[in-house]
Amino acid sequence: MSNEEVIKEAGRYVMNTYNRFPVVFVKGRGTRLYDQEGKEYLDFVAGIGVNNLGHCNHRVTVAIQKQVQRLMHVSNLYYNEPQVSLARLLVKHSFADQVFFCNSGAEANEAAIKLARKAAKARGGSERYEIITMENSFHGRTLATLTASGQEKLKSGFEPLVPGFKSVQYNDVSAVEKAIDHKTAAILVEPIQGESGVQVPRDDYLPGLRKLCDEHGLFLILDEVQTGMGRTGRLFAYEHSGIQPDMVTLAKGLGNGFPIGALLAKAQVAEAFSPGSHASTFGGNPVACAAAIAVMETFFGDDHLLENCQRMGEYLVRQLNKLAQKYAFVRAVRGKGLLIGMELGLEGRQIASECLTEGVVVNCTAEKVLRFLPPLIITQEEIDRLIAVLDRIFQRRAA
Ligand SMILES: Cc1ncc(COP(=O)(O)O)c(C=O)c1O
């Protein structure tokens, strides 16, 4: 099928839930994507923080191929070794004692919400079920996770919503403190808000929330679906803050493109689940787990991925700040590691579209924020190419 045919057929057969750019990608290698016509693109989106090791990473591809030939699926009524090995690796490299596997970020957050309710009720009685979340947060599109998300536009038309959530201002510990009452079970928060424009909180924010949780007997749940798996220069973003959460949710980069989600938890929380409490047919699927084991082994092998993420992140911020000095419509540059936002005084989608024409894939979120989340293997030369393209496009705007 030609480009035009794919797009036309998509309009006919695929539900209209995405505002897509008119490109059909057919191949990916490292930091590059290729379309139907063979045009090469430099990828600064990485599937929105998914292909952290680059497209078709060799180790991950081989691990998937081997597992596909051995065992593709087995019910969770039985054991499979990749699931156990992955859980052990995640526990070894995190605060957690146990893991629940699922298939996506929303599902991981659903599991966290259910576990928080079950564990809090066991501790504090049936009235303890409320979860405090943050304004402008994003936790997924299932009914409970969109209710948890602090954005009205996601909820409109889907009422009645799930009871038991209230949202307060992000980056404000006292707003959370004021919202706590006898019903509060947990605080659910992104260490950096990704979808709402890469909002980085103050350094004392997560420690402040940890303290509140300790004082009031609440669970601190970190949604690391976007910030986890090396994106901010550490395996998990909470590592920057010096605190330990009670639960962390993961997806996106965990399988480097193979769908998998996970809820990590401390033992005293995890023990609230028992057989029958929660389940997922495909959760902990051996192929998905084989992919994620390869991802974990790459992070702790000789690839120096986290170090490259930190160095390239700092370099990208420096170069973007130079553009900010040159063009008055650039309002701010912010981020951590390779999760970086550039806030503009104008609509960003058209800029992202022009970048695509120039062979660079860039995301726009929250209408006016260009978001950069390239594979963590990105090089200085590739960043220079992005900056040159942005400079050209910005120059046309400024003229
Ligand atoms: C912080 C955060 N949580 C949850 C989700 C939902 O993940 P999924 O689309 O895999 O359900 C996303 C997706 O962008 C996210 O960024």
As a percent range, the share of helical residues equals 25-40%
As laid out across the biggest beta sheet, the strand order is 4-10-9-8-7-5-6
Write down the secondary-structure element order.
HEEEHHHEHEHHEHEHEEEHHHEEHEEEH
Distance between the termini: 40 Å
Bound molecules: pyridoxal-5'-phosphate
Largest sheet: 7 strands, mixed
Question: What attributes does this structure have?
Answer:
globular, alpha/beta, four-stranded mixed beta sheet, binds pyridoxal-5'-phosphate, 15 strands, 17% strand, 14 helices
Walkthrough of the structure:
- This protein has 399 residues and is α/β, with parallel strands linked by helices.
- The protein is 39% helix and 17% strand.
- It has helices at 3-13, 46-49, 58-70, 81-92, 105-124, 143-148, 152-155, 173-179, 205-216, 267-270, 286-299, 305-326, 349-357, 380-398; strands spanning 25-29, 32-35, 40-43, 98-102, 130-134, 165-168, 184-189, 219-223, 247-250, 261-265, 330-336, 339-344, 360-361, 363-365, 369-372.
- Strands 4-10-9-8-7-5-6 form a 7-stranded mixed β-sheet, with helices on both faces.
- Strand 7, helix 9 and strand 8 form a beta-alpha-beta unit.
- Helix 3 runs antiparallel to helix 11 (286-299) and helix 12 (305-326) runs parallel beside helix 14 (380-398).
- The longest helix has 22 residues, at 305-326.
- The protein starts with a helix and ends with a helix.
- The site of pyridoxal-5'-phosphate has 15 residues, from helix 5.
